[in-house]
Amino acid sequence: MAHWLVKSEPDAFSWDQQVANKVEPWTGVRNALAAKNLRTMRQGDQAFFYHSNIGKEIVGVVEVVREAYQDPSDETGRWVCVDMRAISPVPRPVTLATIKATPELAELALVRQSRLSVMPIGEDHWAMLCEMGGWKPPKGR
Would 22 be classed as within a structural domain? Predict the structure, then answer.
C-alpha cells in the first residue's frame, strides 16, 4: 500500500463534505505531476486529506476505492480522477507550520513543492505524521 497527501481548499470541498458524501471523485486536478500521481494510486492506498489555503492542515485520512479514470469535470479528456472514501479524521490536525518546524519533514513534497495538490508520502513520513496527528489505522488496515 502506498501513501499520499491530497489537498483541497475547504471553501471548495472540505473534509466535512468528504465525510458526508462518503465516496467522492477527486476531480479538478490540472497539474501534470499531480495527475501522474493520481494515475499511480491503487485501490486501498491511503492519503492524508489536507485543507489548503484556509487552515493549511492535515485534517483526515481517505482511501482510494476506485483507480484513475477520466475526470468527468474535464471536457478535454486529458485529466483523470480517483474515487476517495473517508476513513476518519485525525484527532489532532497537523498544521503546515508544525510540519515546516519539524526538521525530519524538510524533504516532504508539501514543504518543497507547496503548489502540488497530489503527492506521495514515504513510509517514515507517513508514520511520523500519523503520530503527530494522533491517528492510528482502524484494525484490519
Answer: yes
